[in-house]
Amino acid sequence: MSPALDPDRIIVRYIYDGGVLAHARICLLDPKAGVVTGDDLLNVLETEGGVDFSRFYASVYETELSGGGWIPINRSSTSAEADEDIQLPIPSPIAMEQKEEEPAPVSRRIDVKLFPRPIEGRPERIHDSEMANAAAQPTGKLPSSLGYYGIGVMGAKTQANVGTLWRSAYQLGASFLFTIGQRYRAQSTDTMKAPTRIPLFELDDWEAFAKFAPRGAQRVAVEMGGVPLEEFEHPHDAVYILGSEDNGVPNSVVRSCHHVVSLDSERYASYNVAVAASLVMYDRMTKMKKKEKGSK
To answer: What stretches of the chain adopt beta strand conformation (E)?
Structure first.
């Protein structure tokens, strides 16, 4: 049995299968009598996290029973097959320094992963749109040392491409989305329904953007003739600006940006706007994570 918890709030950090803990959602749990049960954990995920347990089942990361792995959680009151209800907290897998005479530290965080339940006729996986509906619940997020960034399009011509861009932006950690000179209409290509999860700002023109842009964030134009993406060092806090599919980012806007980044190609030079944005965001994510890892 794990040592009892003080009656303080516990951070419940949870992700859906396919996600990463760095982008986890969180909710807070008040333990009763110094311990947390599986029922307590499922209840807070359902009430505060909006988890639909008819579509997903929860597993908790623990180290004592399995040596480090995801253990399914059952409701002791509803599952006839459940063994004795799991007693938490689970010790953190991250080693913590301590003196020999001090008691072993107890984690103040519980990590949970949500796996899709098999569906008759489609046992292999729940469709993206169903995953998005179940995951799209307003909640908090643990702070990141990777900085923040927003991404948007100026004078977009093809709304379907913007929908694809929004989906990639959500998946790759964008903090906000924006359009300049063109309002966005919901597109089926955005299966994640990104504007319901992160802010979308619709700005009339460049002057409106200049007033809106977060203070301290550097503007990065994605346009031909700039620094090659493979050589580019992304700012800690940034706003990425892409242009329309036919005209790109206007020269006057490019001149007002802190950086211009371009994408190499073997043949045709111009990329689809959603593809270009996705390549830039993925490059940012991998480089920032590598930088963070190297600083530890």
So the answer is: 10-16, 25-29, 36-37, 56-62, 69-72, 87-88, 109-116, 140-141, 149-154, 176-180, 200-203, 218-228, 238-242, 259-262
One-letter amino acid at 97 equals E
Four-CA torsion 263, 269, 270, 274, nearest 10 degrees: -40
Amino acid at 267: R
Q: Does domain 149-295 have CATH number 3.40.1280.10?
A: yes
Q: Which two tokens stand for residue 144?
A: 């990141």
39's tokens: 């029922």
Q: Report which residue type is found at 280.
A: V
Q: Report the pLDDT value the prediction gives residue 281, as an integer from 0 to 100.
A: 95
Range with top average pLDDT, 38-42, 43-47, 123-127, 220-224:
220-224
Between the CA of residue 177 and those of 27, 155, 257, what are the distances in Å?
A: 25, 14, 18
CA distance 12 to 4: 17
Say which residue the tokens 């001149």 belong to: 255
Question: Residue 181 above 70 pLDDT?
Answer: yes
Local confidence band at 231 (pLDDT 50, 70, 90 cut-offs): very high
Exposed / middle / buried, residue 124 (Cβ in 10 Å: 0-12, 13-18, 19+): exposed
7-16, 125-134, 268-277: lowest mean pLDDT where?
A: 125-134
Environment class of residue 33 by beta-carbon count within 10 Å: exposed (0-12), middle (13-18) or buried (19+)? exposed
Q: Between these two residues, 225 and 34, which has the higher pLDDT value?
A: 225
Residues in the chain: 296
Please report where in the chains the tokens 């203070």 appear, as a residue.
Answer: 215
**Best CA proximity match to 116, nearest among 19, 192, 194, 49:** 19
Average pLDDT rounded to a whole number, residues 212-221: 90
> First vs last Cα of the chain: how many Å apart?
33
Domain boundaries of the chain, sorted by first residue: 10-141, 149-295
